[in-house]
Fold this sequence. Notes:
It is built from ten helices and eight strands. By secondary structure, the chain is of the alpha/beta class. The chain has a single domain (3-243), classed as TIM Barrel (Alpha-Beta Barrel). Helix 8 links the parallel strand 6 (155-159) and strand 7 (200-203). Helix 7 runs parallel beside helix 8 (173-191). The structure holds 2-phosphoglycolic acid. The site of 2-phosphoglycolic acid has 13 residues, from strand 8.
Amino acid sequence: xxxxxxxxxxxxxxxxxxxxxxxxxxxxxxxxVDIIVCPPFTLLSAAKEIAANIFIGAQNLHVxxxxxxxxxxxxxxxxxxxxxxxxxxxxxxxxxxxxxxDVVARKVKTALKKKLNAIICIGESEPERKENKTLSVxxxxxxxxxxxxxGTENIIVAYxxxxxxxxxxxxxxxxxSTTHDSIRLNLLEMYGSSASxxxxxxxGSVNGLNASEIFSVANVNGALVGGASLSFDTFSPxxxxxxxxx
Length: 246
Ligand code: PGA
């Protein structure tokens, strides 16, 4: 299983911030970790040009490949830029843009057709967690978001508890272990043994201090990082932590 760290810049970053991506690319050239940075659409092209040693990903894409969809970006356009990954179904899009599991599944299908790696986000809300619904919510999201997806190639799952995103709070290591094991089981149920190769990332307030212990958990194959991915100084300790995972 390859180790993987993805940075989600969300709606942050101007051209002056491209230097942070270049520094990551230069410092981790030849690393055995797949490093992906997902800046806003406006920076994708420039990021691709200055960061030859890492992968550049998008934060979203449209279900269709072209057409009368003002303001949207297609998988076709991302492929044209040399973008290799796309985050799909991030909780902020599920909440703010009403993206259902069904929409997510259609976007995953579109991405896979273009050979883009789909980073599919799932995660429970705080009330769902309090009601002990975490594992059932995740199972529903996994089955729904991968509906009609027949193979495991180019699929990455990111478990991001919504209450842990941007809050500085993280689940205990025991909770991360339980959820990641459960996600793996769900994927094995769906796809058989080939599901053991699907990377499962943890996301939600990962930083340089907690990354090593999170990566020590079985079935945690990497991280999806928000705030801490915005600068080289905060992102690189996380990449080093996964490099050290045995
Ligand atoms: P965070 O965000 O690392 O800032 O908590 C993670 C994410 O939303 O992907």
